[in-house]
Design goal:
mainly beta; 9-stranded mixed beta sheet; 5-stranded antiparallel beta sheet; 15% helix
Length: 389
């Protein structure tokens, strides 16, 4: 049997086991943690996961109050990313002590939206005469909070271990001893959640019309649900698992870039030994709390190979057209989404690949936050260069 035939046989076996689990194992959704934090007494929490079953991800519900004082503050208005920024960072560390996820709330939100091809948690308009429609505000936040008023925000986050609901790629078999996993979440402080009219709103929930002194978060309640498969088929040696799926990591990471030069090509490199599925760029080029007009500060983005061939080179508006074809709407300003799912970027075979941007204007304090979505073979990563985070 040739190496190619052996690989095909292993993949076929993996797919058969996966199909059996999806069809016959019990899908479990169980609450594993719920805590209320008063007055931002702590902003970083660690949630030990339950070592049971084949875990595919975690659903996190966050309900927070934002109290806008009657004196010293001003009218608060939602920022483009709004409640997604209640979580500033999510880190998931697996059984081998490897960080599969180290990213931001806004990135978690846009990746889930990209994969389900619509804004996460949104309702689809309908003309049905039978009462279907946007009857529940599942994810909710007041558009404005007046001085002297307290607003309540509800936000959900899907923190994935597996790539999707119908594949187990990246899932973790957790029914082991002498090893632990950890989900760490860092919530926004009042100063991060609410900023003044002249401050950067990119990672804030609300921006004031003027000063925002004295804003507090009286309560923040987080609830974590673990999603996993139980009652797996057993052999004499233990559970029958899809070896390729659980030998692959699904990663979400964020890397900051700065010091870009206007009128020149600036490079954001794809790390080795990975299959990149998407890239999200939060283009933070604001001045005194205000972003430039959409697309006016960028000449083009390009996906470029090591030999300087541009595989896809488009102006910002044309990139947004491709984004709209997937989401049927636009991502929040100033985020650009690049979906490679139809043809992932295989850095193992394609060599050095870069997302290139040529800005027309780079303002003082510029920062590009780049979110990466990728798959990686666990064994190969022993020799791979790590993504910055």
């Amino acid at each position: 049997m040739t190496a190619a035939q052996q690989q095909a046989q292993q993949q076929a076996q993996n797919n058969a086991i996966r199909a059996d689990i999806l069809a016959n194992s019990q899908r479990m959704k169980q609450q594993i943690a719920s805590t209320t934090i008063a007055n931002s007494a702590t902003t970083q929490v660690n949630v030990p996961t339950q070592n049971v079953g084949l875990i595919t991800g975690f659903l996190v519900k966050v309900v927070a109050q934002i109290a806008n004082p009657g004196a010293g503050s001003s009218l608060l208005t939602l920022t483009p990313n709004g409640p997604a920024n209640l979580i500033q960072n999510v880190t998931f560390t697996d059984l081998q002590n490897y960080q599969r996820i180290n990213t931001s709330g806004w990135h978690i939100s846009v990746v889930k939206s990209l994969r389900q091809k619509s804004p996460f948690g949104s309702s689809t308009p309908t003309d049905s005469p039978m009462g279907y429609g946007s009857n529940w505000t599942v994810i909710k936040a007041p558009t404005t909070i007046a001085a002297g008023v307290t607003g309540t925000i509800t936000m959900y986050y899907w923190i994935p271990l597996a790539f999707s609901d119908d594949t187990l790629v990246g899932s973790i078999y957790a029914n082991v001893v002498n090893a632990t996993m950890n989900l760490q979440m860092t919530f926004a402080t009042p100063a991060q959640a609410v900023v003044s009219n002249t401050s950067d709103p990119s990672l804030a929930v609300y921006q004031g019309a003027g000063a925002v002194a004295g804003v507090t978060i009286p309560t923040l309640t987080y609830t974590v649900f673990q999603y996993y498969f139980d009652q797996l088929r057993q052999s004499s040696k233990g559970p029958i698992l899809p070896s390729i799926d659980i030998g692959t990591m699904y990663e979400l990471k964020t890397t900051p870039f700065s010091n870009f030069v206007a009128g020149q090509d600036n490079y954001m490199g794809y790390s080795n030994f990975r299959h990149f599925l998407s890239t999200a760029v939060l283009w933070d080029n604001q001045v005194n709390g205000v972003y430039p007009a959409n697309g006016s500060d960028i000449n083009y983005f390009s996906l470029r190979t090591a030999n300087t061939t541009d595989l896809q080179k488009l102006d910002p508006s044309t990139w947004k057209l491709t984004e709209r074809a997937i989401l049927t709407t636009d991502a929040p300003t100033p985020i650009y989404l690049f979906d490679w799912i139809g043809k992932p970027i295989y850095t193992s075979t394609q060599g050095n690949m870069n997302l290139v941007v040529n800005p027309s204007v780079v303002n003082t304090g510029f920062n590009a936050l780049v979110g990466w979505e990728d798959l990686a073979n666990i064994n190969n990563l022993l020799n791979a260069s790590a993504l910055s985070s």
